[in-house]
Amino acid sequence: MSKTAAPAQLAADPSRWKALVFIALAQLMVVLDATIVNIALPSAQTDLDISDGNRQWVITAYALAFGGLLLFGGRIADKWGRKNAFVIGLIGFALASALGGAANGEAMMLGARALQGAFGALLAPAALSLLAVMFTDARERAKAFGIYGAIAGGGGAVGLILGGFLTEYLNWRWTFFVNIPFAIVAAVGAWLVIREPAGSRNRAPLDIPGVVLSTLGLVALVYGFTRAESEGWSDALTVGMFVGSAVLLAAFVLVESLVKSPLLPLRVLLERNRGGVYLSLGLAVIAMFGLFLFLTYYLQIVKGFSPVKTGFAFLPMIAGMILGSTQIGARLMTRVAPRLLMGPGFLVAAAGMLMLTQLEVGSSYPALILPAQLLLGLGMGTAFMPAMSLSTHGVNPADAGVASAMVNTSQQVGGAIGTALLNTIAASATTAYLADHAAEAAAGGAAGQLIQAQAMVEGYASAIWWAVGILVASAAIALTLINTGRPNMGGPVASGSAEGVDLKVPVIAH
Q1: Angle at alpha carbon of residue 191, lines to 189 and 192, rounded to 5°
Q2: How many CB atoms lie within 10 A of CB 14?
Q3: Complete DSSP assignment for 196-216
Q4: Which sign, positive or negative, has the C-alpha torsion 360, 361, 367, 373?
Q5: Nearest-CA neighbor of 305 among 369, 353, 358?
Q6: CB burial class (10 A; 0-12, 13-18, 19+) of residue 428?
Q7: 386, 333 Cβ separation under 8 angstroms
């Protein structure tokens, strides 16, 4: 195995802080896009005549393309050069955003979202690896990733509010068009400022079979969950999708164990601490992604909130995430073992989710939804901080990049599955409630509308109960599998490590 030069041996890039501005701007664009679309979705669904069964694909198409291609994007960045991949990712993301803003139907919208995800999968690993190679001093690296993470957290809040303003006072299409100036400025600035260290490319051949098998396997899995909503769990094609997914993903594992330059070296997954991080985070994000979708519809459709008011209504969750990550997780992660932050963090989030199972048509926002969001944010922020630091725990320096990408992949794929799975559960519960109250629903008028609203809320509550169980499972996995002690933060940066990635603040909304 070839050895790579330790980051500490590389001369510090004099333009590194300027480069950070444009890298952070690109990150802000991606985060804005994620949360803006959540707020704009009800309006876009109405204008483009997207069915309730397919609405989650506006979110899922992005998350699945991003998650499925993220590892491949990281390898492409290593092969083409991180600067080239970063600029191409920005330009492609801008073009896909323009396509989404101009969408005239469901197919065009879903295609644009998938393209955004694909170019985002090229952009994200290139941005992270650029920071890693440009900031060679451990203290500077920590500061750079801290700034990067703060923008990620703050960007989520800005996206929710900006999405509300754009949707309410202009048009939902501007939630896509707003990406274009961000991308142009970031691409031009990156092209002029970023200078990648010489000899840092990885010339290993691409694992095309691995890319094809993993992407098709994940698409089949999510489509199976989505189809179950409309056709039922026993439908032949639904079952076929699940079986096909299992076969494809098993073949992917087999290929990765045989090829010389695998897309995902299995040694990255088999270490118990990293495996525990990927699995617990993936499950936790399943719970969170579905919740964002449900709360958006509950607040706008059931409670009658405007898009702007809905955006502000999500701020307690974002504030909780930032607080939990920077003031609890970051302060305690050098003092206690990671599992003692991750396990309790997921349980606190589960407690917040448990409160939301009590949702009713007339539920009070200040009395129920606000404190539940705070608990969710605090718990997830506290858990995610040590989890990010463990994503490269004990990893071979040559695998540090793919290990960092894997933690993002687990979140994105978990989000894609979560949106589809929980939407399916909610829709099934809503249908069952309407069937049990068919006479009242058929009456029409105010009574009929009330039954319709109650049916929607019944569906949301049923799905949220599943989310509670998923978060408890995440806590159990973290407490069981993760056994490393508190990290030694005083040591030097290891060769090829991704130290500093642990300072990212999570934003759970694609």
Answers
A1: 65
A2: 8
A3: PPTT----PPP-HHHHHHHHH
A4: positive
A5: 369
A6: middle
A7: yes
Look at residues 120, 31, 132 and name the one whose alpha carbon lies nearest to residue 69: 120
Describe the crossing of helices 445-481 and 272-297 by its angle, rounded to 10 degrees. Answer: 170
Spatial separation of the C-alpha atoms in residues 44 and 50, rounded to whole Å: 8
CB 252 within 8 A of CB 381: no
Quote the CA–CA distance of 186 and 180 in Å, as a whole number: 10
Place of tokens 């090229």: 122
Specify whether the backbone of 103 is left (phi greater than 0), alpha (psi in -120 to 50) or beta: beta
The span from the CA of 285 to the CA of 418, in Å, is: 7
Separation CA 312–CA 307 (nearest Å): 9
383 SS3 class:
helix
Report whether 290 contacts 422 (CB < 8 A): yes
- Our CA angle for 31, 39, 447, nearest 5°, is 155
What percentage of the chain's residues is helix, strand, coil (to nearest 5)?
A: 80, 0, 20
User: Per mean pLDDT, which of 15-19, 105-109, 394-398 is the most reliable?
Assistant: 105-109
Q: How far apart are CA 230 and CA 211, in angstroms?
A: 29
Is residue 84 within 8 Å of residue 191, measured between CB atoms? no
Summarize the confidence of residues 457-478 as an average pLDDT.
93
Measured at the CA of 259, the angle between CA 256 and CA 261, to 5 degrees, comes to 90
Tens-place pLDDT, residues 356-367: 999 888 889 999
Regarding pTM above 0.70, the answer is: yes
**pLDDT tens across 5-48, in order?**
434 444 566 777 888 888 888 878 877 776 677 778 888 888 88
User: Using CA atoms, how far apart are residues 173 and 295, in angstroms rounded to an integer?
Assistant: 21
